[in-house]
């Protein structure tokens, strides 16, 4: 028995989890550029059960068809790395709690907030999230009824005489409240715009691609967008602390491959989603 086989046998007897880590590390060391991971390794990756067009589609506990650009990018990267993926859809806040409890191996798409590091691990560089390893970029934009004076100049609001609506769990909610803005949270983009049309709120802060798609699909011409974004943020695939402890090389390889493939794949995939019926991304 050679030294390689002896090490494997010993580690299998001592600690099965450590055995898997050793095998992955040895494969990484001996295989060079292309790394194929153990076929029995399946990643449980969670994401929101509400649509965020075009990144993930359908308001359901099941994947949609087509599933969304971010879902496809992760699937392609996982396939290239030889790893199986099981996608799990849950309410946004529950996704983070399941990740923290190590019942999910990874989750997407989340912007960086220091407090979110309690739930999972972001790709970092120099103490800051590494923008190069983002999965997507999203802009939050302010919407108002046409003819109203509510405005945003990139730094402050003017003529803000009431509450803004936003989807529950969106990171923009905390950002607005830090500015002293009253925010009414709703479950969906549709509810926010209905509240705006019924003047229960004076504006809506929403993800631009989602809100624009909703307004166009429903031929709503009484609402307009303020062109200056409220915020533009990088969004990431994040891993559980346990997964990074067990498979640090695999987590890093995922982020590196996303950085390499993201823009190319997005350019290839976006025509399919632009051509798709927009309402399909916003319905069950």
Outline:
By secondary structure, this protein is of the alpha/beta class. The protein has 9 helices and 13 strands.
What descriptors fit this protein?
single chain, 284 residues, alpha/beta, D-Maltodextrin-Binding Protein, domain 2, 3 domains, 9-stranded mixed sheet, two-stranded antiparallel ribbon, 9 helices, Transporter substrate-binding domain-containing protein
Mean pLDDT: 86
Give the second-level CATH assignment, the architecture of the largest domain.
Answer: 3-Layer(aba) Sandwich
**Helicity range:** 25-40%
Structural class: alpha/beta
Tell me, what is the CATH class of the largest domain?
Alpha Beta
Strand content: 15-25%
- The beta-strand count equals 13
Q: Remind me, CATH topology of the largest domain? A: D-Maltodextrin-Binding Protein, domain 2
**Main sheet overview:** 9 strands, mixed
Q: What Rg, in angstroms, do the CA atoms define?
A: 21 Å
Number of domains: 3
- For the record, what is the CATH homologous superfamily label of the largest domain? Periplasmic binding protein-like II
Order of helices and strands: HHEHEHEEEEEEEHEHEHEEHH
Task: Choose one word for the global shape.
Answer: globular
Organism: Kiloniella laminariae
Protein name: Transporter substrate-binding domain-containing protein
Descriptive overview:
With 284 residues, this protein is of the alpha/beta class. It folds into 3 domains: 1-32, no CATH class; 37-135 and 234-282, D-Maltodextrin-Binding Protein, domain 2, CATH 3.40.190.10; 138-233, 3-Layer(aba) Sandwich (D-Maltodextrin-Binding Protein, domain 2). Helices cover 39% and strands 22% of the residues. The strands form 3 sheets. Strands 1, 2, 3, 6, 9, 10, 11, 12 and 13 form a 9-stranded mixed beta sheet that branches. β4 (124-125) and β5 (128-129) form a beta hairpin. α1 packs antiparallel against α2 and α3 packs across α9. Mean pLDDT is 86; it is low at 27-35 and 277-284. It comes from Kiloniella laminariae. This is Transporter substrate-binding domain-containing protein.
């Amino acid at each position: 028995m050679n030294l390689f086989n002896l090490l494997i046998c010993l580690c299998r007897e001592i600690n099965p989890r450590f055995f898997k880590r050793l095998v992955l590390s040895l494969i990484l060391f001996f295989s060079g550029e292309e790394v194929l991971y153990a076929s029995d390794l399946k990643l449980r990756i969670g994401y929101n059960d509400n649509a965020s067009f075009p990144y993930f589609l359908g308001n359901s506990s099941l994947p949609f068809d087509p599933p969304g650009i971010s879902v496809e990018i992760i699937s392609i990267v996982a396939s290239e790395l030889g790893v199986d993926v099981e996608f799990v859809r849950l309410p946004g806040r529950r996704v983070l709690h399941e990740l923290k409890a190590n019942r999910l191996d990874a989750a997407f798409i989340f912007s960086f907030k220091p407090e979110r590091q309690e739930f999972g691990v972001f790709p970092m560089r120099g103490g800051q999230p590494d923008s190069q390893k983002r999965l997507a970029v999203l802009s939050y934009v302010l919407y108002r009824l046409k003819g109203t004076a509510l405005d945003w100049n990139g730094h402050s609001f003017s003529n803000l005489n009431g509450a803004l609506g936003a989807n529950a769990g969106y990171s923009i909610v905390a950002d607005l409240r830090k500015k002293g803005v009253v925010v009414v949270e709703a479950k969906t983009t549709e509810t926010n715009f209905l509240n705006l049309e019924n003047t229960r709120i004076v504006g809506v802060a929403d993800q631009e691609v989602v809100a624009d798609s909703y307004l166009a699909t429903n031929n709503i011409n009484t609402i307009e967008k303020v062109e200056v974004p409220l915020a533009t943020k990088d969004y990431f695939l994040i891993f559980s602390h346990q997964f990074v402890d067990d498979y640090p090389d695999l987590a890093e390889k995922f982020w590196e491959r996303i950085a390499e493939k993201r823009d190319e794949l997005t350019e290839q995939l976006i025509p399919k989603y632009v051509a798709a019926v927009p309402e399909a991304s916003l319905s069950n």
